Amino acid sequence: MRIHDILGSPPGILLGVIIARLMPPRIGYWLARVIASAMARRRSFMFINARANLSRVVPEATDEELDDLARRAIAHAGRTYYDMFRLSAEDYQRGRVPLNIRIREWVAVRQALSDGRGTVLVGPHMSNFDLAAQWIASQGFDIQALSLPSPSTGARVVNALRRRRGIVMTPLSVSALRAAIKRLRAGGLVMTGADRPVSMMDELVPFFGAPARLPTGHVRLALQTQARIVVACCIMEKNGQTATGDASGVCCYRIQFAPPIEMEAASDQESAARISDANIRHNVRRVLEIIEDMIRQAPDQWLMFVPVWENATGKDTSDQELPEISDMLGIVP
Q: Do residues 195 and 125 lie in contact, with contact meaning Cβ atoms separated by under 8 Å?
């Protein structure tokens, strides 16, 4: 059995929660580095995929530098899970989460989330995105998250933890999309990813200068419900800065918010409210440009372990045949 299969299984995840609660951060982070080094030596599929993706983000990197970036990304993923697992729902409620927030950004976003209009929250799979989403939920916002359909047993365990911390997890389905549309029209908040391929049905869109089959459903939802989009990411502070400046060793993360995005018309011949291919492509690129800038800030914190671009054999990048939001919106009234 492969290392990632063990770590992603329900027993592996539950063991991770126990370890995170009992093991001090210094040891937990060391263990994440040891596991990442082992996966790099074995050239695991996670390592190979991360390395291929990072070669697009950092095209000037040498082979040795790409190896190091991919290894660090895997180690960072382990560190983020350790930090998420060690926190309880009470920690979020009492403000004991190791996060830094830029006050001006958060004030602007909080105002947008509270003004009665729907908001689609999207972002890259960067650093401790789970912890960031759970912090937003702890601020009094009811979040519906659209996740991959047919989650594995391990993913269902993680989703249960997310639910306990205030996020409504809804694997992608027609009923989940109906709930999302209803929520957005009522002024609510829906969250989804935008940087992970999920379907061969998606159109190719430019991403880091190369075509990739990435989701467009977040833009379709915004156009269909007259919602805005907010792009956010989570980045670990440079040099692993601690949350309190003490010797606890717990690293601190920062949530970064881009200004809210209103949907635009692709040209003078288009209406901004029209759900047309041109409007969708235009607004998808606007979102991806922001995501590209976020990923460039810390490439080794982009936790993307499935192929994003076509590989050397020319095969499709999707690891599964999964329905995407855009596929389903055509049948959701």
A: yes
Rounded to two decimals, the pTM is 0.85
Domain that holds residue 197: 94-329
Answer whether residue 49 is part of any domain: no
The domain that holds 237 is classified in CATH as 3.40.1130
Confirm if 29 and 86 have CB atoms less than 8 A apart.
no
- 298: in domain: yes
Of 213, 235, 237, 214, the closest CA to residue 287 belongs to 214
Taking only the tens place, the pLDDT of each residue in 273-292 is 678 888 999 999 999 999 99
| Count of other CB atoms within 10 angstroms of residue 131 | 21
Q: Give how far Cα 256 sits from Cα of 2, 92, 155, 185, 263, Å.
A: 34, 18, 26, 26, 21
Q: CA-CA distance, 170 to 144, in Å (whole number)?
A: 7
